[in-house]
Sequence to fold (229 residues):
Amino acid sequence: AQKVTQAQTEISVVEKEDVTLDCVYETRDTTYYLFWYKQPPSGELVFLIRRNSFDEQNEISGRYSWNFQKSTSSFNFTITASQVVDSAVYFCALSEFTGNQFYFGTGTSLTVIP
Amino acid sequence: EAQVTQNPRYLITVTGKKLTVTCSQNMNHEYMSWYRQDPGLGLRQIYYSMNVEVTDKGDVPEGYKVSRKEKRNFPLILESPSPNQTSLYFCASSLSNQGGPDTQYFGPGTRLTVL
Fold:
């Protein structure tokens, strides 16, 4: 069965600290896609990244980086030098190659304290 | 502006009174989906549609219906709402999932309260 686990329910950090949000997934498929979304206090869902299972290279986008490790079925998200605007709920999601269904984790609520 | 719109944004209703939440996208996307978001449970998929006239159940379809008569619209129907359907609902669309799941773009959400 497909499953996404975000074990960290809430995290608080002080501004400028680095923070890593964990995402562990389960799937029987060899081809699948992983996603991260951000939900700021205003409530909308903002796409951050899409990664397929064949691409294990880590990705960096500004202060954001993602570490994909198939060996541990993890797709962790790191924010470097956190800012107050990073305060949000972050969701990790999984979809298999057929692309019909999406499975979201329960989310991690990040608070960045000024 | 490319977007997914949902109406209404907020709705308070009573048990058993049929309601429809509309969803429309202007991006010519083939794939559309409905989710509900509940505290501690994240987002759970209710129904999805790969294209016009093609719909299928997600993880939590009980108590909901959908239809996809046109590419741009994907309404969510609650025939007889119950209090356990009080939730935040999101509609999403993506270009196509034929070659693997594409990035979904979400509507602004509909907060539904069933008394």
User: Anything to note?
Assistant: The CA atoms of residues 42 and 89 of chain B lie 11 Å apart. DSSP finds no helices and eleven strands in chain B. The interface with chain A takes residues 31, 33, 35, 40-45, 48, 50, 56, 58-59, 88, 90, 92, 97-106, 108-109 of chain B (CB under 8 Å). Chain B has a mean pLDDT of 94.
